[in-house]
Amino acid sequence: MTDLSAPSLVPPDRTNLAALLFGMMGGPFFWIAQIVAGYITADLLCYNGQHPAIAPSADAVATELIVFDAIAVVGVLTALAVSIISWVRLSHRSGSSKEPKESRSQFMAIWGIFSGIWFLGAIIFNSIGDIVVPICLR
């Protein structure tokens, strides 16, 4: 007898598109968030402006910057791990019989790995600057 059931359109080992996008865009997102949060926090202390406001102490601002840096590092490491896991899942299928969608997914996973590595380096260099450079000289 002939099997008349419809073939599955989604292979069982395909990764989620949201995971691939998080892996690709997690690094840039956390890097930009680190920079913006650092500028806003340091701006409160150094350039208080003409409006009456209570300026936080330099120690509190330095602590906040270190917390922002730690959150950014953990976030980009999570995105990097998601990309690596996605790439490993997609690489288990061997041979040249891959569908074009699987090749694109593998490309997105590799792009996420490279993006995660580069933006992890950028976040670490920004973190070194936050620790070494005095707050109001940035």
Explained architecture:
With 138 residues, the protein is an all-alpha fold. It has one domain (17-137). Helices cover 70% and strands 0% of the residues. The protein contains 3 helices and no strands. It has helices at 17-46, 58-91, 100-132. α1 (17-46) packs parallel to α3 (100-132). The protein is elongated and about 60 Å long. The N and C termini lie far apart (75 Å).
How much of the sequence lies in strands comes to under 5%
Broad structural category? mainly alpha
Helix proportion range: over 70%
Low-confidence stretches: 6-13
* Largest sheet data: none
**What is the CA–CA distance across the termini?**
75 Å
Radius of gyration: 22 Å
Number of domains: 1
Overall pLDDT, averaged? 81
H and E order: HHH
Q: Figure out the total of helices.
A: 3
In one word, what is the shape? elongated
Give the strand tally: 0
